[in-house]
Model the fold of this input.
Amino acid sequence: DAGVIQSPRHEVTEMGQEVTLRCKPISGHNSLFWYRQTMMRGLELLIYFNNNVPIDDSGMPEDRFSAKMPNASFSTLKIQPSEPRDSAVYFCASSIGRLNEKLFFGSGTQLSVL
Amino acid sequence: DQQVKQNSPSLSVQEGRISILNCDYTNSMFDYFLWYKKYPAEGPTFLISISSIKDKNEDGRFTVFLNKSAKHLSLHIVPSQPGDSAVYFCAASRHGNEKLTFGTGTRLTIIP
Done:
């Protein structure tokens, strides 16, 4: 299996621009998670989906952030407009969705907002 | 509010010695705990887990200890090897909820 695939690996953009991060979970996994890694806060959960339905979006920092999962094999995280403080590594992870099932992470997207 | 805390941002250990990484949590509802390992430019990968019904779980060179009364867990690596150099994240979840809450991570460096 190819694992969780994220694109792009790196994104550099200017403040105010729209940013879209993409994720393809492992086939057969029905839970998908978006995390953000920063030095100060470690790995923060932004939102997670189960069977393509958003279950918990309490970690989404502001209305500028939105996430969608139109089907079982694709999800996007969008930031509009982006700000310098959004600079971080964004990880997507998936799991089979059973209780205590471990997460499989993608390699992340390094986002830099100038 | 950081519910899972890793107070040591970094740790250096001689090769062959024991590495001990610590983690504290504040939410008494947490009952399942995991450790993830992360290499540069890669996503975290699962290392070992423990349920609150146990106080120890062992997998090869890796052992996790859980002290529920102190809300503390630790990861022991014996013996430490150069390939163990990575960032280690502690994570916790509540019964019935698959959402994981992570700590800030500890960077472990194994000195040859």
Summary: The mean pLDDT of chain B is 94.
